[in-house]
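Figure 6 in text form: structure in, sequence out.
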């Protein structure tokens, strides 16, 4: 039998392709630090969001793939840039007047507007860790403030001070003429105001490890670049961090693409080797516009989880990360049904096919067993014909069809049931539009009702589905999809619908017959 590592490296899944490239980095010798370091970054001026989830989830997928092909230990650092100065007051936070009075100060030096942590930064960091813990990510949290003040960056900062002109040669061509006149990679933390200043540096002193800069009132002040007395601008900061921590792998969104060469250049000046990097595309809203936290035009993670479990979101993050995708409510049903389909396939697959399956990456190589439960789209249609806001009503249909299932024994299905009710009420019910059947459609529906009346209990969904096909052929619809469109539009009030054999089995033949009879009697199903 082939070694599992040899099989895994054959996978064409993008996390394995990234992992193989990362393994090449240390093919001659393992890292002297003893591990491969993955990093993700977080700007704590706002709450963690769906992009935060995506970056950590995708990085974790590469990390797990690397662990499957290499014996080198790994670490994942989630780095919070909490020493950054607050440049504007977020619209969605309390105590905005207090925050306005502290503009320019490090986030960890500003009081918590929520009043429950030592600082604004501490509050957001706690939210980040709570967020990541909720989804079971394995990571190490690292604070910019703590790391700077503890001196962990001191050696690298002095290296950049020593090569100050080289850093400026990298950065100045990227700036406008006016900004070039005052730019410095070092941002002093003013000993007078406590602000992180975008100040003009007039002198660098390598012997003392200090810079002389212009204070806000125009006077000169001298501070060390070490010990948390200075912070780097965010672009040099990224490269410095890569060098100081020995980062081997980092992802970033397409909006960072033009800065990637700068990060790498600074890393080299600081004496480091730039990490393997992966650029992912940004998400779009329903109108094809880039999702923006400030605009609030995207889908939040809480909104996604109102309808389906997080595994479906992980699948959406796995699929085509370098393709711009719509992240809106209408992608949710397919995402969760695709997840269940991949889970079912995994149990039948062997060898490299398993490593290619998204659920391997979602669950770190150990996906749960498929439970053979109804799909989300089927539950949505069940919610529609049941006309209920109560998940217990849906469970009554489910247990009638599959007595072994219950909310207690199948919590994943219970999440789907509750989510299907929510999704139906929020998005499908307001758009339902029933129509009456044509003469030919009425005769076909009558034939379907008659067939179901003679149907033995427990008939398999595939058998029912085959007969529905045959009825469509018998009544000579121009094409079978016209027959199924008629079923969806007259029975369900929507242009698309489920596999009808499965729907009949789950809803019950008796209830389906009643539904058809109501349509044939021209009753108002929308009432």
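Output sequence:
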């Amino acid at each position: 039998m082939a070694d599992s590592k040899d099989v895994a490296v054959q996978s064409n899944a993008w996390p394995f392709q990234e992992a193989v490239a990362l393994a090449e980095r240390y093919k001659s010798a393992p890292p002297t630090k003893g591990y491969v370091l993955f990093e993700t970054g977080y700007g704590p001026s706002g709450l963690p969001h769906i992009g935060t989830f995506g970056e950590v989830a995708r990085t974790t997928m590469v990390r797990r793939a690397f662990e499957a092909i290499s014996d080198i230990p790994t670490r994942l650092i989630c780095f919070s840039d909490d020493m950054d100065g607050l440049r504007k007051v977020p619209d969605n936070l309390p105590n905005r007047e207090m925050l306005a009075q502290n503009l320019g100060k490090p986030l960890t030096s500003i009081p918590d507007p929520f009043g429950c942590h030592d600082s604004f930064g501490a509050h957001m960091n706690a939210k980040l860790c709570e967020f990541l813990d909720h989804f079971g990510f394995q990571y190490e949290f690292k604070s910019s403030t703590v790391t700077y003040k503890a001196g962990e960056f001191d050696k690298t900062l002095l290296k950049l001070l020593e090569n100050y002109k080289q850093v400026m040669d990298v950065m100045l061509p990227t700036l406008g003429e006016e900004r070039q006149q005052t730019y410095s990679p070092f941002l002093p933390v003013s000993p007078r105001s406590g602000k992180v200043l975008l100040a003009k540096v007039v002198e660098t002193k390598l012997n003392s490890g200090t810079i002389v800069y212009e204070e806000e009132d125009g006077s000169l002040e001298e501070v060390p670049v070490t010990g948390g007395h200075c912070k780097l601008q965010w672009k040099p900061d990224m490269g410095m961090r890569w060098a100081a921590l020995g980062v081997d792998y980092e992802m970033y969104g397409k909006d960072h693409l033009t800065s990637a060469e700068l990060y790498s250049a600074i890393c080299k000046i600081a004496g480091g080797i730039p990490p393997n990097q992966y650029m992912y595309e940004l998400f779009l809203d329903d109108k094809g516009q880039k999702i923006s936290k400030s605009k609030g035009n995207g889908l939040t993670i809480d909104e996604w989880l109102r309808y389906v479990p997080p595994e479906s979101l992980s699948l959406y993050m796995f699929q085509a990360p370098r393709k711009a995708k719509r992240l809106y409510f209408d992608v949710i049903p397919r995402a969760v049904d695709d997840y269940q389909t991949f889970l079912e396939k995994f149990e039948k697959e062997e060898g490299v096919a398993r490593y290619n399956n998204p659920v391997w990456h979602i669950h770190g190589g150990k996906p749960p067993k498929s439970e053979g439960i109804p799909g989300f789209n089927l539950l949505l249609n069940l919610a529609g014909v049941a006309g209920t806001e109560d998940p217990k009503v849906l469970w009554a249909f489910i247990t009638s069809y599959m007595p072994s299932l219950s909310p207690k024994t199948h919590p994943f299905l219970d999440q789907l049931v509750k989510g299907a009710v929510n999704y139906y009420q929020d998005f499908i019910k307001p758009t339902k539009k029933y129509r009456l059947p044509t003469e030919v459609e009425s005769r076909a529906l009558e034939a379907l009702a008659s067939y179901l009346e003679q149907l033995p209990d427990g008939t398999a969904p595939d058998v029912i589905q085959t007969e529905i096909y045959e009825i469509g052929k018998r009544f000579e619809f121009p094409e079978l999809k016209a027959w199924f469109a008629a079923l969806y539009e007259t029975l369900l009030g929507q242009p698309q619908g489920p596999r009808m054999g499965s729907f009949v089995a789950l809803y019950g033949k008796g209830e389906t017959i009643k539904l058809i009879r109501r349509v044939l009697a021209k009753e108002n199903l929308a009432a």
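Caption detail: The CA atoms of residues 252 and 279 lie 5 Å apart.
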